[in-house]
Prior knowledge:
Radius of gyration: 27 Å
Distance between the termini: 41 Å
Low-confidence stretches: 605-611
Strand order of the largest sheet: 11-10-12-13-15-14-20
Structural class: alpha/beta
Helix content: 25-40%
Largest sheet: 7 strands, mixed
Strand content: 15-25%
Amino acid sequence: MMKIEGVNDFVIRFANVNGSGSASANNLFAKAIFRLGVPVSPKNIFPSNIQGLPTWYEVRVNEQGYLGRRGGYDFIVAVNGQTLKKDYEDLAPGGYFFYDSTRSLPDDFLREDITLIGIPLTQICIREIENPKLRQLLKNILYVGALAHLLDMDFSVLTDSITRQFSKKPKLAEPNIHALELGFEYAAQHFADTCKLSVKRSKKLTRHMLMDGNTATGLGAVYGGATVAGWYPITPSTSVIEAFDKFSSRYRLDESGKKKAAIIQAEDELSALGIVIGASWNGARAFTATSGPGVSLMSEFLGLAYFAEVPVVLVNVQRTGPSTGMPTRSQQSDVLMCAYASHGDTKQVLLFPCDPKECFEMSADSFDLAERLQSPVILMSDLDLGMNDHVCLPLEWDDNRQYDRGNVLDAAQLEAMTERWGRYLDRDGDGLCYRTIPGTHPTLGAYFTRGSSHDEYAVYTEDSDAYERCMNRLTRKWQTAKTLVPKPHIKISDKAGTCGAVFFGTSTHAAYEAVDQLKEQDIIVNTLRIRGFPFQDEVMDFVDSHDQIFVIEQNRDSQMRTLLVNECGFCPDKLFPITNIDALPITATLIARSIQEKLSTQVPPHQGGVK
């Protein structure tokens, strides 16, 4: 039997029971690899109940830095009896099946193309650990210790991680380190030269971070000047607000040490956004975080903010739907809903981060953008990006940066005006009006904010011409927005422009890897990563200059493709959808295979087909 071999290049999956404390142990393993300087991508795949159901934790280790899901498993740590058979069957030929041998495997486990690694985890814990409450928790640590031997890892990085974790409670570190040692020693005695996979210290990561997107987003809101968060908890966005609270308590303090930020939990998502609109109208920088069901409930207030032109920042950490769907699984399925959020003729500005660094940057930038445009800005994250750790470059901030408050008139400017001020009057031709903040002047600059039809001076009207002028001005503002949202990232390898791929957000890493895989087969694909909506001319030019475009996304209906066709007028036949709907992050294997299959069915160029 041929064993899978590899140094710093494999995928390992942990199969556990939710609520058993396994996440901490699996996270310890992933972070230890990161501290060894090796690129790593952990994915926690957990159920939406509190405990009892199966949970998986995948870790991809890749020296080349490919951080998307690869697909397939080289090593499985199976400690959940409910999924034992499925885990056994999912292992790749030549792989390694690590299980708790306190109980023997059933008789129908008959594969001869894998290596079995049976370690009596439960038996060792019963024998060596007196406290029954600690046995289950330390059993998880025990298998991490065994992995350290099997994968030839530097054992000291694990013990050092435990010591750091319990630096304030060193007595708790002792039993954890003992459990690591028990697992390591057993594996060393019984499986001396079993596994051909290994982790070696690398210099690939020298200045990188391992961080989750929700933490970065919450920190970005603090740096972006947010002082108010209206909030209703919903998975998987809750930790955005928790991070904002934590960082505000550390960095947003007055001279007396009092926190200068308000976090208000509302009775529902609609009320949460109402809090944001009220705070923003009063001059604060305010935001909320939610997921798809919350955006559905917020749609009426999003329409109000769009038409009344009140700055709003909304973080949408997308999850699998419709309805309740699978709250703890990831998708990119809210693209159309957010782009056209609310009824009537509305269009909302969208930003698409692909890693925690961009979550931080785009979160902070959202407040400048919302105030400049006087409109909602929606940050389109998802569960994979928000709740999983990702390798990224350090977060950076220019301390000399000034916030862009947009066209805001102060008291002196109001007094200096010789013409009548109109809240919805376009003086510059860019669709952006001049606003005032309540209390700026005792007699000047006041207006009535309404969601019903109004003229240039905020006066209620049902005059058709006035409404048409307002809507046309909002269209001009939309054109201005194109110059302000982040530009796409474009990579051109084939100037002839035969094939192109368009993607966004967490599809990015797998898409770039798939393009590299295709290049090895002499299939050259140029790429464009969308970072913002509305689409700029660069998006139009990229699509126009290629014979065929593959649109890669994680939803059933290829929503980004629909948005491109609708907004840019592209021929639908030119845009071929590549979609993933299994509620897990898309893989490079799926993308590369889909492109290959599509190209293989086409007529060769000399017969009039597409290259």
